[in-house]
Amino acid sequence: MEILCISNGHGEDLIAARICIELEKLGFSAIALPLVGVGHAYTKANIPIADQVTQAMPSGGFVRMDSRQLARDVKSGLVGLTSKQLGFAWKWSRGGRRGKRLILAVGDIVPLLFAWLPAKLGGCDFVFVATAKSEYFWRDRQGYLPHVKKPFGGSNFFPWERTLMSSSHCKAVFVRDLLTAEILNKEFKLPAIYLANSMMDGLEPKGIDFGIGENDWAVAILPGSRSPEAYENWMTLMLCAQVVARTIPHDVHFLVAIAPDLDLEIIGQSIIQKGWLRIDETTFKVQNARLILLREGFSDCLHQCHLGLAMAGTATEQLVGLGKPVITIAGNGPQFTRKFAEEQADLLGCSVNLIDKPAQVADVLNSILQDPDYFQEVSRNGLERMGQAGASASIAKYIAEKIY
């Protein structure tokens, strides 16, 4: 049994790699085709990559958010690369014994199209793990969100996406929440299945001790993973952190999740310039606050914090899924723009508090601290919006038992 896994982004690569690991446990062999970047998540998981048709692009995969980024990618050979990747997928899908190959598309319409086209031209069947879309973007279980325009075609999945998903070659669509599965099944007769949320997999804590006292507060800071945007986000979040430290009448520990591609020293120097005392390479103090820069321990950071200050995509959703409230503030992009932040707030509901400027952090905190039921509501909401962990193993099992 052979699997070609097609994904388009670092977060999607991580999700896809976890599913591939579970499939290999069941006797499948997997090869990866990362459409964006060179697939570090697959390499780390020891999954072979079609490296002859992979290439890092200047945009880092955010071309849909910024036309200038798209222009830079085109100049760097995006069109030729896409053609080669499509050719590889089509050739692979037609190889091997019939019925013994399957494409696993993870992400949005781009990998879905990369799976659908070869199937349409005589290639193998495919399944789709839809990580990017949810009906929660424009409605909840009570009805439509009044401030959000009803999407074209009556679903967050546009008619052309639903056309690809309704293909006889599409053997399953795995969605990220139960509401989305119910709507796609009931209203559009699509093969949508909810088997927990892959974004919540791999978040088990390792038991790291950050030295947080029983009455202390821990606050996660998530500036995003892509430079130079993450550095700009970080400066904004530092201002928010200063407001938190002044507002909360306890010792506060800021746990800062630093992505591998970010320069620790650049961030460290910016902290010192704000008047913090450097204790060691990754620890800083000022008055009642301590700040720790974390290269490792992301899961422990999310589990141990009481709330988050975030300007990130997937990491924010994971924090909400663990039942934590988040304060977000729009940035200049290309990812975490005002539009992105508003859509994320709609997706994640009451767990997200979107503000316009750092000074408003105090108002949000005072409101949270005066509401005895808020943390319980956020815990319930996080489970509803983001679902449970365990999807990777469940999806692999479904493929093994229901498709092959």
TrEMBL record:
Q: Which domain of life is it from?
A: Bacteria
UniProt-recorded name of the protein: Lipid-A-disaccharide synthase
Q: Can you name the source organism?
A: Pseudanabaena yagii GIHE-NHR1
